[in-house]
Amino acid sequence: MATNTQLRRQDIPQYVLNDFRHLHRMEHDISDFGYSNLDAARRIPGFEIYSSEGLRPAVGPLKSDFYRISITLSGSVDVQLGLELFRHRPGTLSFTFPGQVFSKDNISADTFGYYILFNADFLEDIIPAASIPEEFPFFDYSGVPFIQLEVAPITAVADFVRKINEELQQHRSGCEKAIHMYLYLLLLEVKRSYVAQGLDTTATDTRNTYLVPRFKKLVSQHFLAKRKVADYATLLGVTPNHLNRTVKEVTGHTASEAIADMLVQEAKAALRYTDTSVAEISWRLNFSDPAGFNRFFREQTGQTPLAFRKNA
């Protein structure tokens, strides 16, 4: 039997790929791209692809146990991964990995793009699941989850997406293997730009330029177990005062507020998308009692957890 400590460290439940569509697609989705209205016999386990046509106006915050690639070709959209908020514009890609808190909103009327969802073992015949974060660092906490591509690489990425869709729709012999290869080539195309832009070196850079992004990544990774600014200062090799001062200068908020914000995102995901009781959520988020969680949530959001769940 698991101990109380083990249970308290459990994550909020995550969505699996085959029980996720209702959260991101409109009920009357009429798109003919990708999986939107694809015959069940042509679907490939562990993989889905869509265009932004038929996408809900807002998604999340929520957690999932699969990888996600979001590609914007026109318009704009706000995407938040953990504590990192970015605005997509034409040529922007973002990447989400299993267990990450994710949200998308403020989608402009002229937005168009694609997104791909796949399980960790989907590319197993090409690359082991455990090697994906190492091979493609934008799928790792230490990497940069957003990239802006020039015309040539974003055109190549869009071409791979269309080839994947063509394989799905035509369902010719060997289509599943072809999709595996096209997805891998798409990721490789992005990695080449990622390396060319020097994004693969930021994780080891100790300058203040990268201190705040690295702090945010660490909070997204460790917030359930580490609640003190001093914990993150130790991980980053700086003093708590230096970390607090730098975070405040860059973001306008204290490091403690950033940690609290991550907890609020996690709580909102559980309240909106699960039936887990408030008491259970407070326990899983390592609060000493439900009253403390209620007080914390109200201070951060202006409403109680039950009121947020009712209005979500």
From TrEMBL:
Example GO molecular function: sequence-specific DNA binding
Xref: InterPro entries: AraC-bd, Homeodomain-like_sf, HTH-like, HTH_AraC
All residue ranges annotated as the HTH araC/xylS-type domain in the record: 213-311
Keywords annotated in UniProt: DNA-binding, Transcription, Transcription regulation
Alphabetized Gene3D superfamilies for the sequence: Homeodomain-like (1.10.10.60)
Keyword ATP-binding: no
Any Pfam family the entry gives: AraC_binding
Protein name, per record: AraC-like DNA-binding protein
